[in-house]
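Support case: adenosine monophosphate complex. Customer-provided input:
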Amino acid sequence: MLILGIECTAHTFGCGIANSKGEILANVNSEYIPTSGGIHPREAARHHASVAASVICDALKAAGKNIEEIDGFAVSLGPGLGPCLRVGATAARALSLYYNKPLIPVNHCVAHIEIARLMCKIDDPLVVYISGGNTIISAFSDGKYRVFGETLDIALGNCLDTFARYVGLPHPGGPHIEKLALKGSNYINLPYVVKGQDMSFSGLLTMAIRKFKDGAMLEDICFSLQETAFSMVCEVTERALVHTGKDAILLTGGVAANRRLRVMMESIAKDHGVVFKAVPVEYARDNGAMIAWTGVLSLLHNVTIPVDESFIRPRWRLDAVDIPWRMNKHEVNKEGC
Ligand code: AMP
Ligand code: MG
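Agent response - structure generated as follows:
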């Protein structure tokens, strides 16, 4: 089975091609980089519409496949920015209708998790998913990816990007903050906000900006911003790990590229005697391959959607999605008995 997947939730228009052996045959992505300010949904959508055809053609070329060989078209219907989602959905609907092949709805957060499980060969981890639009600690239980902690306001990646923009660093800000943080060493007190299992990053962002205005060294603020934000995620992760009893931590999403975060997660894993893995950088950021692979899993379990019901879902939650391709450990044991 060969699935073409389209990613189009925010800054990236991506097209991936995957088969049922778990091989990624193509992963072509075009990112919209704002010339000034943050991501403007309409401008991003304009970028996506202008590159859609060439990205899809390039993916088919890279895979060495003809479009007639594709068995289904998967698309991320949410969560994400409405104007962007509409571009991807329109392209996937058109392909599905024209080639008379199933349309497969994919939840973007599920796709980040599935590509990480595939690449890292980890079956049942506690997932730490941190990106520009999401900050979620999740684990599989009873048919769904349950949420064991999330942000109450902005995502961690968004916090980094907004701070970077304010202090004049290029977009996306995460990698630039990481570099500067290596040169900082004075910890500046910043708001550490964990409420139960949830986190809040907006106060941290406001205070980091205030410290910059007050003349603190940028390197020290970057260092302190990372230490504070990552410690919050680690605290929640550690509690979720103990609560769920999972034997691995899997880091995914764009912020997973950060070396300091990886070191901190690794040390938690070591303390608890569990495995730690982070998704390879190519698959950490938004990409078409993750939608294609989740499309394969979905179609193998007959998850498709009629074109006239394939509305975009800008606020589609991870824990609202059924995951029929996974079984609980006790169910596997039951079958084995
Ligand atoms: P995504 O939304 O999954 O595509 O991830 C994009 C987010 O990842 C943006 O907020 C980036 O700033 C962030 N990011 C990428 N590389 C790094 C890094 N090395 N350190 C921290 N954040 C990063
Ligand atoms: Mg993402």
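Residues 332-337 have pLDDT under 50 and may be disordered.

Case will auto-close in a few days if no follow-up is received.
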